[in-house]
TrEMBL record:
Name the UniProt record assigns to this protein: 2-dehydropantoate 2-reductase
Keyword Oxidoreductase: yes
Chain ranges of the Ketopantoate reductase N-terminal domain: 3-148
InterPro entries, alphabetized: 6-PGluconate_DH-like_C_sf, 6PGD_dom2, ApbA, Ketopantoate_reductase, KPA_reductase, KPR_N, NAD(P)-bd_dom_sf
Top-rank EC class of the record's enzyme: oxidoreductase
Function, as annotated: Catalyzes the NADPH-dependent reduction of ketopantoate into pantoic acid.
Enzyme Commission no: 1.1.1.169
UniProt pathway annotation: Cofactor biosynthesis; (R)-pantothenate biosynthesis; (R)-pantoate from 3-methyl-2-oxobutanoate: step 2/2
Ketopantoate reductase C-terminal domain segment(s): 176-293
Reaction equations catalysed: (R)-pantoate + NADP(+) = 2-dehydropantoate + NADPH + H(+)
Length: 298
């Protein structure tokens, strides 16, 4: 089973380092420099003070079509997907494709891909990248995965082999799986980015908690019948479990990088518009994040 990973960011490097224990893995990077560093120095993984180094293959993305893969994990940010989708449409149709993005705006474009086996996933690991090929595992969880098109068989070898140290969990319904994750990302990410607070402060400060509940109420008005009963409790649990962490959106704003707000709140607002629903607090939050992005881009 030849595994390809597109994107040598925090998630891509973690998947590459983990899966290369059992499978031949090639990481496709945006730059030649990063591919060279991975080839020569390996991927350094720090977890709970322990350091390990793994040596998957690596190649720049412009050599992608020269490689034959059985399955490919796509680990770029939502807004980086269009360029990747073009490459995937031009290349072989045979590999199974697994999309690891937060948010849900990619679902519409996935339908346009000709591939037989498509999967979406909700990554519950927390990983940081500190240098070209250096990552830090800040919370080892699991990867929930669901079939978008095709069946489970094309990647069942990976799911079975990687357990228990790098677990995957099959979910029957991709929409409710991604919605659960998106509920947390819709409430926690933009609020922490605007307020510049850790995930834990959202529930320890009673006024921030009221705001979080308001955002959740608006979110659930759009997806009411598809959200699981314990979705709010799960968000509170994530805030508690990741209390000292800064959300990825807060880190993106602080590092002057674009955020995934369009794939998260933008998607929620587009679904609300289709149902003629107004979400005033969530809409305001969306404009605040877009405004912060605009300010940093100036
Ligand atoms: N980090 C985490 O713990 C979690 C992340 N996620 C989700 O996973 C996805 C990836 O996140 P994360 O790894 O943190 O993001 P990063 O920004 O760390 O990684 C994205 C990587 O994609 C690379 N890339 C961009 N464009 C291309 C291209 N055209 N060809 C090849 N590579 C490209 C970037 O390269 P370069 O740096 O050279 O620009 C970068 O290395 C996101 O949707 C995120 O929401 C979900 C759960 C947890
Ligand atoms: C779950 C949460 C909010 C943890 O910080 C996350 O996924 C993120 O920061 O993007």
């Amino acid at each position: 089973m030849k595994v390809g990973i597109i994107g040598g960011g925090a998630v891509g490097l973690f998947f590459a380092a983990s899966l290369s224990q059992w499978f031949p893995v090639t990481v496709f990077t945006r730059t030649q420099e990063q591919a060279h560093t991975i080839q020569t120095k390996g991927i350094k993984v720090e977890e709970a003070g322990e350091l390990s180094v793994r040596f998957p293959e690596a190649a720049p993305m412009d050599q992608f079509s020269r490689h034959a893969m059985d399955c490919i994990f796509i680990a770029v940010k939502q807004y980086q997907l269009p360029a990747i989708l073009e490459r995937l449409k031009e290349s072989s149709l045979s590999p199974a494709l697994i999309f690891l993005q937060n948010g849900m705006s990619h679902l519409t474009v996935l339908k346009t891909l000709p591939h037989q086996h498509l999967y979406v996933a909700a990554v519950e690991h927390g990983v940081l990248k500190s240098d070209t090929a250096d990552i830090h595992v800040r919370g080892r969880g699991q990867t929930k995965i669901a079939v978008f098109r095709g069946d489970e068989r094309a990647i069942s070898a990976i799911v079975e082999q990687a357990a228990p140290s790098f677990p995957f969990e099959w979910k029957a319904d991709y929409e409710s799986m991604l919605l659960g994750k998106m509920a947390a990302n819709s409430v926690i990410n933009p609020l922490t980015a605007v307020l510049r607070v850790t995930n834990g402060e959202l529930i320890s400060n009673p006024y921030y908690l009221k705001m979080a509940k308001t955002i959740y109420r608006e979110f659930s008005s759009v997806f009411a019948n598809k959200l699981s009963a314990g979705a709010w409790e799960e968000i509170v649990h994530i805030c508690r479990k990741t209390a000292p962490n800064r959300s990825s959106m807060l880190k993106d704003i602080e590092s002057k990088r674009p955020t995934e707000v369009d794939a998260i709140l933008g998607y929620v607002l587009s679904q609300a518009a289709e149902k003629d629903l107004k979400l005033p607090a969530l809409q305001a939050l969306y404009y605040m994040i877009k405004g912060l992005e605009y300010k940093e881009a100036e």
